[in-house]
Design goal:
With 194 residues, the chain is of the alpha+beta class. Helix content is 39%, strand content 26%.
Length: 194
Amino acid sequence: QNLIIFASALGVGIGFGLQNIVNNFISGVILLFERPIRVGDMIEVNNLFCRVKHIGIRSTIVESLDNSSIIIPNSDILSNKLTNWTFNDNVIGVTCEVGVAYGSDTMKVGNVLKEIVLEHEAVFKSPAPQVWFTEFADSSLNFTIKFWINRPAEKFVIRSQIMHSISRTLNENEIKIPFPQRDIYLHQSSDAKS
């Protein structure tokens, strides 16, 4: 009887294992024929930004920005949300957000931000970078900047360089980037006075 229970458990385990292998195999066939991703594409899956190095029948090998190779089961690629940043070409949009202090000249801020972005050699002149005044927030006037590059692997490096330039240039123009603050008023009750 113990042998029957052991055989049953082993059969269930093998069944689940085979199911996983078949699932990855079918997913691999779908990836190879439908081609939602290709070798060399920059993709984002499970919050991981990486380049596709090899697409196999059971798994896909990707390379992260720190040059580590990661093996992802094909079923994970098809079952999770995936962004292919270079599906059509290598041009990708990058977004930065910045808040300035109340009282700042919003037209001047918008012009300064656009000049900063255009000065970076990796940023496309066409389509031109866009700057929007987006929000009157609690502590700041918020702006969103959108620009395009064709070096997707350097997305975060270029964004960081532009953010450094924004911080330096706003400081040079005496435009303040505020920090969140709250004013607290304490009132003494009439009972406490007596």
